[in-house]
Design a protein that fits this description.
The structure is a single chain. The chain is an alpha/beta fold and about 280 residues long. It folds into two domains: about 180 residues, no CATH class; about 90 residues, no CATH class. Helix content is about 35%, strand content about 10%. It is built from eight helices and eight strands; from the N terminus they run H-H-E-H-E-E-E-E-H-H-E-H-E-H-E-H. A three-stranded parallel beta sheet has the order 1-3-2, covered by helices on one side. It starts with a helix and ends with a helix. The relative contact order is 0.13.
Length: about 280
């Protein structure tokens, strides 16, 4: 009961701080951005970054060629969904970002396109929009909530603490699917995560990207975190991928001491014109 109360308070605070949240009479699994709010220059750079990567995906070939983007996040917020809503990804799939991303479960009243173009978004610690139905299924609801709503029904959230409980069916399923996703991935981009020692479970999960040096032969890691030197970032990576990064791997491990916006701005400048004209 106390966990539900704390989840309600956290959700209420985040809804109040969210500049894009608003009431809507439309289906709740949709995200709606206020019409008067145009994307900032920084937001445009981020959506351009994902557009450039997706332009390498070939939907007209019978073989699964190109880049498939998947997201694993420890945050509760809906930043990634807003990127999809502002992104060309939604065009041609439907009105909702849920038409082109898989959440680790099939939400009630929603359908998922079953093809290799579908991308994944797994929220390890739950999300403000994820609710459990009485029958054990899940629903997605992005409608802005007040305290009364949240007292009646609180979202699925892992509370910040040293003893985090991942024993409920949702979190067990998401952790397992995240592990499988990391094992199959060829490129891992870690953004703004300090890899703290106390996050034992998350560090163990990330380790499945490359358990041994042989696993790392055809894989790459990009670690982006501002305010820390390249040596410190590499040291943190080695604390997780001990056996995989035994020797210096300049072509396999890339660190960027700066913000994600600085990273995508440089990426767009270097790769944007070539990829768009390819």
């Amino acid at each position: 009961m106390l966990r539900e109360k704390f989840s309600a308070l956290i959700a209420l605070k985040m809804w109040k701080l969210n500049p894009y949240s608003q009431k809507s009479k439309d289906p709740h699994d949709f995200l709606y951005l206020p019409e008067e709010k145009e994307p900032t220059k920084e937001q445009k750079e981020i959506t351009d970054f994902f557009n450039i990567l997706r332009s390498k995906k070939n939907p007209y070939d019978l073989k699964q060629k190109g880049i498939r983007i998947n997201h694993i996040t420890t945050n509760y917020d809906s930043v990634i969904e807003y990127i999809y809503t502002n992104n060309n990804c939604v065009n041609g799939y439907g009105k909702s970002h849920l038409d082109c991303i898989y959440r680790g479960f099939t939400p009630s009243k929603s359908t998922i396109k079953d093809n290799w173009l579908t991308e994944s978004l797994f929220k390890l610690n739950g999300g403000l929009e994820i609710y459990c139905n009485p029958d054990g299924t899940y629903k997605i609801d992005y409608e802005k909530k007040d305290y009364k709503n949240l007292q009646e029904e609180s979202p699925l959230l892992i509370l910040p603490s040293y003893e985090q409980d991942y024993s409920s069916p949702y979190f067990i399923e998401i952790l397992q699917k995240s592990k499988e996703l990391l094992t199959m991935a060829k490129v891992l981009i870690i953004v703004g995560y300090s890899l703290p020692e106390e996050d034992v479970l998350i560090r163990f999960l990330l380790k499945h990207f490359a358990l041994y040096e042989t696993d790392f032969q055809d894989k790459k890691i990009f670690y982006i975190n501002k305010g820390e030197s390249h040596n410190k970032l590499r040291k943190k990576l080695k604390s997780v991928f001990r056996e995989a990064i035994n020797k210096p791997s300049p072509k396999r491990v890339h660190t960027f001491s700066g913000s994600f916006n600085e990273f995508v701005e440089r990426f767009n400048q270097l790769w944007g014109p070539d990829i768009k004209n390819a």
